[in-house]
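Appendix B, example 12.
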Amino acid sequence: MLDYYAVLNVSRDSSCEEIKNKYKSLILQNHPDKRLDHANEESNAFTRLLNVIWDTLSDSQMRDKYDRELNQSDLRQHFVIGDSVHVSQTDSKCGEIFMDCRCGNTAFLMSTFNHCAVALLGCDFCSQVIVVDLS
């Protein structure tokens, strides 16, 4: 998954104002009137990408959805994810999150990532990891 924050060279916790300033700066740098080689297909494609990025990151609901997807993509690079579920599909007892695993055993909480509102459940028997959306 393409990291829009990396394209803009801003951190993931940047404010909307910071993202807006970086977006405007890159749009101006890439404007056909500012480029020596004038508009070529590559710069036009980059401008279209910047517009998609701005449309996504400037809308709080779209940004939240994008951030969740990006964080899950990051998790998939570190774990073999067997399933993704919403917290409403899990069970809890004494504040502990768990659910039935595909192998018949129980998957328990491994880690919680509060900054991206997800938790990981892991099964010790079959090594499946389940991403739980906590939002």
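The first helix runs from residue 4 to 8. The radius of gyration is 20 Å.
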